[in-house]
Amino acid sequence: MHNRRLVFEQLFRTDPATLLELGRDRRWLGAKLGVTAVLHTWTRDLAFHPHLHCLVTGGGLDEHGDFARTRLGFLFPVRVLGRLFRGKLLSALRRLYDADRLELCGDCEHLSDPEAFRRLLDGLYHKSWVVYCKPPFGSADGVLRYLGRYTHRIGISNARLLDVTHDAVTFRTRHGKSTALPPPRFLARLLTHVLPRAFVRIRHYGLLAPANVHTDLARARAALEASSSSCPPVGDSSACTGADDGDQGDADEPAFIRLFRLLTGVDLRRCPGCRDRALVRRPLPDPHPARPRGPP
User: Residue 16: its pLDDT value, please?
Assistant: First the structure.
């Protein structure tokens, strides 16, 4: 909380650097990836939880100028990703501490003692850092629609506010639950998510870096088009649903089904096996039907 800008900057340096380093490793891909990183600082109950959401290309430009795709069905082992990220971020914090750039006051004043700071880092090194990875999107169009809804979110929207009184602010959290906070505490939580002045919260790296748009990114696009011209892209929604680029879906198509189709290329109303026959909804039979009872 006392070093927000410094720590946020280190997140933006170490997180994409981890992805790009593993991408260059020949054991996994051996190519330059493209990464878009977005900073979020909140949980559903507005607790302070800084983290990056990263959108990563499913392949990259190799040293021969070809577009390299993963041969494993995934980019990297998630445990390797977590451990490398942990090492890079803690090493960056150590460098900031040695350069006397960290403001250590209030609850963290005791960390001014080098031995106390060393014990803190040792404890963090022994924790298993969790890096959460999602499966790929269905199409490029789905990616753009997802980012358009997601990148500019704030800590809480008006739609999540359930009730506001002089005593409490009640809002939805997750899984149908809600929480209530006294107004001063609610405002205090909300203000913790105001970013430092002029801080850039969406950044691009690797193939997507501004300096590479007209060089490496252009070559990667040309190589990708040449290698995939004979077959539709994996997960392309038009190949899965018979829709063209201007498809807007049926007028009676529920919003969640349309969104799922745009993101994944899967039409929930069609059979996943033959993709032809429409699915019919039927209630599942009761696995434990009530047995008839005799008179008492």
Answer: 93
Can you read off the two tokens belonging to residue 202?
Answer: 């969406």
- Predicted TM-score (pTM) of the model is 0.72
Instruction: Give the amino acid at 177.
Output: K
**Other CB atoms within 10 A of residue 167 CB:** 8
Cα–Cα distance, 42 to 51 (Å, whole number) = 8
Contact 81, 23 (CB under 8 A): no
Q: DSSP letter string over 181-192?
A: E-HHHHHHHHHT
pLDDT tens-digit map of 157-200: 888 999 999 999 999 998 889 999 999 999 999 999 999 999 99
Asked whether residue 294 carries a pLDDT value surpassing 80, the answer given is no
Q: Please, which residues have CB within 8 angstroms of residue 153's CB and are 6 or more apart in sequence?
A: 40
Q: Which of 147, 175, 145, 149 is nearest to 261 (CA)?
A: 145
Helices (H) and strands (E) in the chain, counts: 8, 8
Helices (H), the chain: 4-24, 78-98, 114-125, 140-150, 183-191, 216-228, 237-241, 255-264
- CA–CA dist 185, 162 (Å, integer): 17
Alpha-carbon gap, residue 54 to 12, rounded angstroms:
10
Q: Please state the φ and ψ torsions of residue 79, each to the nearest 5 degrees.
A: -70, -40
Q: Are strands 169-172 and 161-164 parallel, antiparallel or unpaired?
A: antiparallel
CA distances from 236 to 142, 233, 244 (A): 9, 5, 10
Give the β-pairing of 59-61 and 67-69.
antiparallel
The rounded mean pLDDT for the chain is: 83
Q: Is the pLDDT of residue 293 over 70?
A: no
Q: What is the crossing angle of helices 4-24 and 78-98, to 10°? A: 140
Partners of 161 in beta bridges: 171
